[in-house]
Specification:
Pfam families: AAA_34, Helicase_C_4, SBNO
Family: Belongs to the SBNO family.
Keywords: Coiled coil, Nucleus, Signal
Helix content: 25-40%
CATH topology of the domain at 79-261: Rossmann fold
CATH superfamily of the domain at 79-261: Tandem AAA-ATPase domain
Number of strands: 39
Protein name: Protein strawberry notch homolog 1
Radius of gyration: 34 Å
Largest sheet: 7 strands, parallel
CATH class of the domain at 79-261: Alpha Beta
GO cellular component, one term: nucleus
């Protein structure tokens, strides 16, 4: 069996991968340093038994690096596995940008092509990436594999493509035929091309585009997600590969990954919803366990380029007084607009359904409007920075999420194809809202419908008035049914209601025109114009035209198309101009953020260092990662600089907080460690700490909250009430964008201070989800005391005899965190401050000694060392130290130090100070102040026993307690990551594990000794599980001729042993876990006698 040659260089949260897990045909090193999170690196994937068919030339020449070959091998090996429901298992590639995911995918297709599987499907986000797919196949020596674009294959020519790769976008997958051809949908066309017994490769590249199969709330599943699911269900034998650095940013977005075998038949989770509920209930720690478990099972790999050399900078942009005035005017206009929308809806007697739709459109436009204003505040600064960087010999990439093209086209249509100035995207948002969604119906159409003649306007008599109807938007209620004051003639006539609503609408549009003079123009057009025009700036966006400033000072709209460049490859052409150095500034939007490489590649002319500026923080971390990865990739001369521009607007933190939260989650599940994205975290910002709230501010903020709909006012009584979603933080942060600048800053400061206090309180009470907790960090010493090993059966593999077991462990560790007198004297010898040294405290007539060292001269803060806990986390002021203790000589402190050090090995602080402890007196264990603490860590394939583990956690700690994930490094250098088990003694830990694993059974089984296959020779060898034998049920071992002779005799004899009434203590670990079903088809483990 080959040995694993995996060595680590540990630095912080990442582990540098020096060699691959593979020792056979290792290949050449990857051209750039690649890292893996320390959490993922703490678990090893299964042994490799699969042998690649890829030619030696491809490997020896380095066309596929060692890291890429590792992913290809594990993917091919995983594809030999079948899930309990009969579907072929899939593989998830979570490699970040730059590891060469494209070549890895090409290698998987090439491997299968060489084995006779000539047809493959490759889905991605853009048709432009077809050229990259062809390049990747060509670069690894697979020139004979042709790539066909799905949108170029008509239904009648479907059969003419006999082999090769069909490349398709996700949007084309859900496309429907309008011409009524042979196939109504592209999905049916692909299914016909593949055939019922298709066992080729299906690649879901950038598979995060298939998310939202399991939507939140009232939203519906996306068509893309459902189509991806259907394709997999129709082709159960297909070799599926999910590939995306962001594919598992949230567990809810994994619904389409049904081939991973995490939920469904033969797993602890019957349905995806059960998996989601379990993971989300247990917090971020549970997501990290899922990622590690997937790697342990051999279904997941996630590496990323080292961020060594990458610099991050947050550039805060100050607001000018003119900008603040314009922003505050916009706020007041939106407040009036909200009032008018409300009044008109009441006047028109709008139905509840119509109101709900109207307000949905209103607040959506409200958010977009102020987002555009936030971006506009940074344009001047980004132009200045870009010019400086180009002068300094660098080149600039500016990232945007949207182009505002829709508003430009609307303005162009209104102007009859002509423009007088740059179009304001913000203005277009509000104008479109008022024109399309304001509750004021067209008078002519409405009165015609009601049979009212507008040619003669008459003043109705009181008797006629009582018969007229109010004007409803959806339904018509009579005047007597309407809610109105019971005064004479209080019911408004149809004509008056419509005219009043129309007047409100006209007034709003007039006020918008007045404000529009100060509103900023389209950001993208302004940036290109300020930076020198289209000849200087490479634009890679999805829009088809742009507004430009001509030499004579006029403004006009022009198409982006060029005479010699087709529109479909325009972005690729612009990219090449940037990479050739013809243009040193590039602007990319989401349309260009997937798959396009803009790094300082050694193979291109333009090797200037890239400065990547983000003007607009993406609403989704999925999009953020894609954009950041455009300029940080393999084979680059220099690593990029990232500049995040953040305005002083507190409301803009909404977008930053979304990205920061999603990045945290992204690091947790995609790379197994949520701390992975701390180096690119956007959650830390400098708030204006000078803001204070007095009564005047409070009144203004209350009115501001009314203006953005967070506080409601009763129409008749004027009573104030909170909005029904008052505790929705996302909604709160969205809405405060619509408050005046000074109000939102003050309110956001109050919010941040309150949030900080809540988090601190949650940490003190143990309710804060900290993700991974490090044990043994700093000066702590971790010793492994005991290890209990448990085996559970896995899935069967085709064509390979192997007892496919999943291993998990319960590790008992002892953490020593105190400081001996010898260590204390060494620390004391290095101190030189006048107030450094030993101090003695007295409490309850008992003396203890501490050691202090000044670390902040300005604030007079001291590091405190104690004999029972070592270095104290919290710094203390000199005043507090002097208040509670007295400085002494080392000889006077020595005995007190040694006494507490020795006592704290097994006596808590309460007992040490007071002589007794309440918890200990009632038979419980107290660990407060203990020098030596014992932890039980459940690690390995915990996912396979998740429901059992949950049952124990619920009984011990409550139904909704978060799983605490711990990470530790023992004295012998071993890294362990797993769940902290809620037990304080070995007996408790053993009983809990037994409860989590054992389910007695009385079935009859056939037994054979435990064995596994040798991965090098593919010949089984005897490897007994200590004290146990493995039972063969329903032909788990399918090829007797592959067994050693001594096992063949026992297997062929068909000896059966009826196990009835087995004692709980006799059951080996988790082996009975899968025996609750009447359908037994897994190997089980029992104690031998």
């Amino acid at each position: 069996m080959p040995t694993k040659s995996l060595f680590f260089t540990v630095f912080g949260k990442f582990v540098k991968l020096i060699l691959s897990h593979l020792s056979v045909r290792i290949g050449l090193r990857h051209p750039d340093p690649v890292v893996e999170t320390s959490s993922l690196s703490s678990v090893n994937p299964p042994d490799v038994w699969y042998r690649l068919s890829i030619p030696e030339e491809t490997i020896d020449r380095g066309w596929l690096s060692a890291l890429q070959l590792e992913a290809i091998t594990y993917a091919a090996q995983q594809h030999e596995t079948f899930l309990p429901n009969g579907d072929r298992a899939a593989y998830l590639i979570g490699d970040g940008a730059g590891v060469g995911k494209g070549r890895t995918i090409a290698g998987i297709i090439y491997e299968n092509y060489l084995l006779g599987r000539k047809r493959s499907l490759w889905f991605s986000v853009s048709n432009d990436l077809k050229y990259d797919a062809e390049r990747d196949l060509r670069d690894i020596g697979a020139k004979n594999i042709q790539v066909h674009s799905l949108n170029k294959i008509s239904s009648k020519h479907n059969g003419s493509v006999k082999k090769g790769v069909i490349f398709a976008t996700y949007s084309s997958l859900i496309g429907e035929s309008q011409s009524g051809g042979k196939y109504k949908t592209r999905l049916k066309q692909l299914l016909h091309w593949c055939g019922d017994d298709f066992d080729g490769v299906i690649i879901f590249d950038e598979c995060h585009k298939a998310k939202n199969v399991c939507p939140i709330g009232s939203s519906k599943p996306t068509k893309t997600g459902l189509a991806v699911l259907e394709l997999q269900n129709k082709l159960p034998k297909a070799r599926v590969v999910y590939a995306s650095a962001t594919g598992a940013s949230e567990p809810r977005n994994m619904a389409y990954m049904n081939r991973l075998g995490i939920w469904g038949e033969g797993t602890p989770f019957k349905e995806f919803t059960n998996f989601i509920q379990a993971v989300e209930r247990r917090g971020v720690g549970a997501m990290e366990i899922v990622a590690m478990d997937m790697k342990l099972r051999g279904m997941y790999i996630a590496r990323q380029l080292s961020f060594t050399g990458v610099t991050f900078k947050i550039e805060e942009v100050p607001l000018t007084q003119d900008y603040i005035k314009m922003y505050n005017k916009s706020v007041r206009l939106w407040v009036r607009a909200r009032e008018k929308f409300q009044q008109a809806a009441n006047l028109m007697d709008a139905e509840q359904r119509m109101k709900k739709s109207m307000w949905g459109q209103f607040w959506s436009a409200h958010q977009r409007f102020f987002k555009y204003l936030c971006i506009a505040s940074k344009v001047r600064r980004v132009v200045q920075l870009a010019r400086e960087e180009v002068k300094n010999g660098k080149c600039v990439v500016i990232g945007l999420q949207s182009t505002g093209e829709a508003r430009t086209l609307e303005a162009l249509e209104e102007g009859g194809g002509e423009l007088n100035d740059f179009v304001s995207t913000a203005k277009g948002v509000l104008q479109s809202l008022v024109e399309k969604h304001f509750p004021a119906p067209d008078r002519q159409k409405l009165f015609s419908l009601l049979g009212i003649d507008l040619s003669v306007k008459e003043t109705p008599s009181p008797s006629e008035t009582s018969k007229e109807k109010k004007v409803p938007i959806i339904t018509m209620n009579t005047c007597s049914e309407a809610k109105s004051e019971p005064e004479e003639n209080s019911c408004v006539t149809s004509q008056d209601a419509v005219e009043d609503a129309q007047r409100m609408k006209r007034d709003l549009l007039e006020q918008l025109e007045q404000l529009a003079e100060n509103l900023p123009p389209n950001t993208l057009d302004e940036l290109i114009d300020e930076l020198g025009g289209p000849d200087i700036v490479a634009e890679m966006t999805g829009r088809k035209g742009r507004v430009v400033s001509n030499d004579d000072g006029t403004i006009s709209y022009e198409s982006r198309s060029e005479l010699d460049v087709p529109v479909e490859i325009l972005n690729l052409t612009e990219k090449q101009r940037f990479m050739d150095g013809d243009k040193n500034i590039a602007i990319i939007s989401e349309a260009a953020s997937s798959g396009i490489s803009l790094q300082a590649d050694r193979r291109v002319k333009n090797q200037r260092r890239r400065v990547h500026m983000t003007l607009e923080l993406p609403w989704s971390a999925d999009r953020a990662i894609q954009q950041f990865g455009r300029t940080h990739r393999s084979n680059q001369v220099t690593a990029p600089e990232y500049v995040f521009l953040i305005s002083e607007l507190a409301g803009e933190q909404r977008f930053a907080s979304i990205v920061a939260k999603r990045l945290e989650s992204l690091g947790a599940l995609t790379h197994g460690d949520r701390r992975a994205t701390e180096t690119r975290d956007l959650s830390r910002f400098n708030f204006d700490n000078k803001v204070r709230l007095d009564y005047t501010h409070t009144v203004k903020i209350r009115n501001g909250l009314i203006g953005v709909g967070l506080i409601n006012v009763e129409d008749r009584s004027g009573v104030l009430s909170l909005d029904k979603d008052y505790n929705n933080i996302g909604k709160f942060l969205n809405r405060i964008l619509g408050m005046e600048v000074h109000q939102q800053n003050a309110l956001f400061q109050y919010f941040s201070d309150t949030l900080y206090a809540v988090i601190q309180n949650a940490k003190k009470t143990g309710r804060y989800d900290m993700g991974i907790l490090d044990l043994g960090s700093g000066d702590e010493k971790v010793k492994k005391v005991d290890v209990k090993k448990f085996l559970t059966p896995g899935y069967s593999t085709s064509g390979h005899v192997e007892l496919y077991t999943k291993l998990f462990l319960c590790v008992q560790v002892s953490v020593e965190r105190g400081m001996s007198w010898e260590d204390a004297t060494h620390v004391w010898a290095d101190q030189n401050g006048p107030d450094d040294g030993f101090y003695v405290q007295v409490r309850n007539n008992k003396k203890i000694s501490i050691l202090v060292k000044e670390v902040n001269l300005k604030k007079r803060l001291f590091m405190v060392y104690r004999p029972n806990i070592g270095k104290q986390v919290k710094l203390e002021t000199y005043a507090d130290i002097k208040k509670r203790s007295k400085k002494v000589l080392s000889d006077d402190a020595k005995q007190h130090w040694i006494d507490q050090y020795n006592s704290s090995a097994n006596v808590c602080s309460h007992a040490y100070w007071r002589g007794n402890c309440k918890k200990v007196s009632v038979g419980l264990q107290c660990e407060i102040g203990l020098r030596c603490r014992t932890y039980y860590v459940l690690c390995g394939s915990v996912l396979s026993v998740w429901t059992k583990v949950e049952g124990v956690l619920a009984s011990v700690s409550g139904a909704n307690v978060k799983m605490q994930i711990v990470r530790l490094r023992t004295e012998d250098g071993q890294r362990i990551v797993g769940i902290s088990w809620p037990c304080s003694s070995s007996k408790c830990g053993s009983n809990s594990i037994r409860r989590a694993s054992a389910t007695p059974s009385t079935h009859s089984v056939t037994y054979t000794p435990c064995f596994r296959a040798d991965v090098a020779s593919r010949q089984p060898f005897l490897s007994r599980h200590t004290g146990c034998v493995v039972f063969n049920i329903s032909g788990f071992v399918s090829k007797e001729d592959s067994l050693p002779k001594q096992l063949q005799n026992q297997s062929s004899a068909g000896q059966e042993t009826a196990l009835r009434g087995a004692k709980l203590d006799d059951i080996c670990s988790v082996c009975f876990l899968f025996t609750t079903s009447t359908r037994l088809n897994h190997g089980l483990c029992f104690p031998s006698t």
